[in-house]
Design a protein that fits this description.
heterodimer; A: about 325 residues; mainly alpha; ABC transporter involved in vitamin B12 uptake, BtuC; two-stranded antiparallel ribbon; B: about 600 residues; 4 domains; 27 helices; 4 strands; globular
Chain lengths: ~325, ~600
Amino acid sequence: MGLTGDQFKGLLMSGLSQGAMYGLIALGYSMVYGVLGFINFAHGEVFMVGAMTGFIASEKFNANGMWESNFALCLVLIVFLAVFVSTITAVLMERVAYRPLRNSPRLIPLITSIGISFFIQNAVMGLFGPATKSYPRLPEWLSKQRSILTFEIAGTKILVLLVACISMVVLWYLVERTKTGKAMRAVAEDKEIAALMGINVNRIIVTTFAVGGAMAGVAGILWGLLFRSVTHMTGFLPGIKAFTAAVVGGIGNLGGAMAGGIALGSAESVAPLVILEPLGVPGVSQLKDAVAFTVLVIVLLFKPTGLFGERLAAEDRA
Amino acid sequence: MNTSTSLLKPIQTVGLEWRRVGKWGSLCGLAMVLTSLIGMPVGLDGRILIEGRLSLGYLSLIWLPLVFGYVVPKRIELEGVESTTYGLQDLLAGLCTGLVAALGPIVLIFGINNFNLRKPLINWSPKLFDLLTHGRGIGTGVIGWLVVCGLLGFAGGAIHLISGRMRRIFISVIFGLLFISILESAITDLSEGFGLESLTDRLYAKRGGLTGGSSLVLAAILGSLSFLLKGRVKRVTSRYKDMDGVQRQSVSLALIAVIVALSIVLPIFLGTIMNELLANVGLFLLLALGLNIVVGLAGILDLGYVAFFAVGGYTTAVLTSPESPWFAPELHFGIVLIIVVVIAGMTGLVIGAPVIRMRGDYLAIVTLGFGEIIRLLFLSDWLKPYFGGAQGITNVPPVNLGLAVVKGTDPRSVFYLVLVFCLLAIYVSWRLQGSRLGRAWMAIREDEQVAEAMGINTVNTKLMAFVVGAVLASFSGAILAAKVGSVFPNSFMILVSIIILVVVIVGGMGNIAGVLVGSFVLIGILGGPRQPGLLQEFQSFKLLIYGALLVFMMLKRPEGLVPSARRSQELHQEEFLQDAWLGDEEENEESPSAQGLLAANVVEDEEDNSL
């Protein structure tokens, strides 16, 4: 075993922080599937748009020196901007493409969302160029290694976990404690009855997309801080992995989506080195994505309802 | 119109709907700005359509006001409700939409002039400014856009006013010119093969594009042709449809024979580039025919279809190439094909057996996962000793058929090889469609539970579709390996699956003719994932267009360009039922009118209910 305890802890930490990000994206998949019963394949692109917005804004802040002098304010501003743009992207998507297809067979909106995903990817490439874009350097006090309970962890990762926790709590409050959240759950349960109860179904569906988009925007900024690079293809793999996370946690189940994300993130960062390396497989870090896909295939094959149980309307269960 | 609905008041439109004009006009303006910033006008400006008048770059902008000008005054025609006739206010609406839309490029002109947003937006450049102002300064640019967009919007509105015959003539002139200028390289190539260079020299300018004079002449020819042929085409097709079984079959056979003969003879006269293009179209056609069986007939959305393409390619490479790193038997292509069929079929079974029971959308994502896993495995260091990792396997030998050698440097031979397989695939799909198995697939596509209740073993039947699709894809992969002479993991990206899906959907799911049209139009003109099409300038925009096309087709015409009759009935079930219901009402009150089979069934149902 070439793996020391410290290394393992490090891997676990980066897995956790990445997983928290997957979890945030997964919330969008889970909520949309819960309410409309189809896979919004383009949700990964919403995340990418958030990361791209963050890059453009931080570049501008960096140019006038604000990034270094007042980093905290900048961070709040770019999160706000990214959330704004991502939300608008998600809502527009719903309005233009998904609303006219509300009553069509399940595969039709899925195919549409693949088209949207392609369109957004390539539109972003056309607008901002195909080159990889790097976020400006983070201030020293944030990115330096800290030691918490014998775990060596970079400050950025703590920030990611913290922000993910905060977003999760806000979302939990929104869904479980507010009237809008109640309406969302009602619409997910049964659209027609919800409409009979005086709920504006269209508005709730738009809200669902908006909330999912906002979460993806936050995740986009976290991605930018963690990896400091973004391209037009950034949304594809995290998108599919986040969908995996949503399935692992049980689709429609928000706590499950977050847990699934963290489980998947840890699995894909730890499994190659812990399981594959001892088997004598060379170049294991290349197989990180293959591990994630294998998890997806295995979960869908053996436990398609997810680890924590899916929550879907009867018509979507089929 | 029928009298039974005269109680309903005609829809009153009070003058112009300004809100609608404003909304769609500004949307059009935004679309123009977005297109400009994505870089289409500048990127496509090199391709000239009509010399000195119109380039593809400008075309990518100015089609928008024309279409929006047409859409804005369009009224939804409800059956039995009299809508107001189109009139002067519609021309005005079109004009105003165009004028509002012109604000988009105008704002962009001023923006580029006064601000520098080059940093994030790479196309915010003086080049775009020059293109938008036509290189003649701001004033001319502003007035030019106002005039052009206004006129085009006006023309769009005017489409509603002119008679159907005029409309047909205009449409055939515009699309005919567009096609002749897009197909420039193909036509030039073909005429060189026939020794008719003088004709094309006169037709096209030196730097590409139609000359002004020849486009006028062509427009006149096309216009008079469509005037003379009015109704004839329809008469011929309706006569074809009225024929009885035997006669119709013999006519179809004659048609097919002509097409096959043409596709055998034409490549002889074509140059290398065109044959290369045809070979690529053929390769993707083969893939699309396979996917058509899986998606179009059986209704299984397989997003990892590229996996079988990869399996075919890699099997061929390993078995024929002397440089295969692990096992290099250097077999003959003919023997390899048999092994490829076996391996692809087995892969299809192995991947298909577990996933086939899943519900449709999960199946799509899982197959996508499988497709990506297979590529990642070929790419990984782990399997590098067997498949060469990122370097792939090179030096795949050409196919030696005894009489002729099929190699990548001679695309004509590749095309003939592909043609044989395509004909085979078309024959197989055609025979399968009508067979018991094909009908079982369609039944499953329409309603799986009902199909199961009818005694169809759904799991096995779907698995068969998966395997047949896998085998066809693997043929394509095998030919690709022999054609390119090497295989790399990156030739088998998920992208390939998606592009084939677009081809099948745009052409028409479940219809062989549709798939043919889809692959010729999309792969031939826009190009495949790596292969350029006739419009090479589109290289960096084709995925954007594929994405937009997919969304557009799903929203407006899910049955595709050449729909299969049954499939479109499924997709528009509600409309069909509604038509049938309306037909029923009419029948009760007025003269009985001829309705479709479906209608007749529903009429019976309705009567049962009323009793």
